[in-house]
Predict the 3D structure of the following.
Amino acid sequence: MRPPPLLPPAEITHRHLEMRLCDLDLRLADTLFAPEIRALRAELRAVGLALRPHFYLSTEYGTIIRTGNIALLWTDGCAWGRRFARANGLRVRTAAEMLITLRHETGHAFAYVNRLYRTPRYRALFEVRGSFFGTYPDHGWAPCAEHHERFDRGEVIKIYAARHPDEDFAICFQTWLAAEIAARSGGAGRRGASREAGWRAEFADRPVILRKLEYVAEMVARLGARRQTWDRRDLDEALARERMTVGEWLRRVKEMGSYNLLPSHPVA
């Protein structure tokens, strides 16, 4: 069943809120994510990464731990969902921000399928203390003074990276990948040393970040050609199977206070 035509914000009530998410009949290939996924896959090929994440529509962005399965927020994927999100005070990503998010989640996937978080070097570099997945803060996380101080000292690229070592790595990966693609687009004559100098020069005065980016580059060079396999059925809240209503989902989002869905906060 297709969703009814969107009404003015003041009139978005029962017809929309009572629909089950699985009845929205959204298909990934028909969404606004499709061209960004194609762009990402071209980027991964360009840098020699054989990893091919499995994307699916869901109730939030995220990567399933230990897999390359990546959930994409349904509201960003269609015009109806984007208008609905704006009308209800949720963040709506631009096409450029959607690509940034895909790079970010792919960073998680690369670390997961290669089990980088288990290695002593990763744990030391990204300051993993105790259980890796067990120390994640809840959905209502917000940066505190310590996180801002780490950013000011040049230990993390973005404040969001201070949330957890997992986010720190993913932001380093997305930053490195964006820099690589930007340099490669400059033409064959500028490849090689100039490409490496791009991110090295940008973070030359922040040695902690530079070491992290060098680690990302090294791991991609060492492990990027591997073709990984994982259980693609391991999904969380896949939209096609989710029986909660749009209204129930919206209430849950607002109750949880998700940092990633608040429009006042920057995209990772």
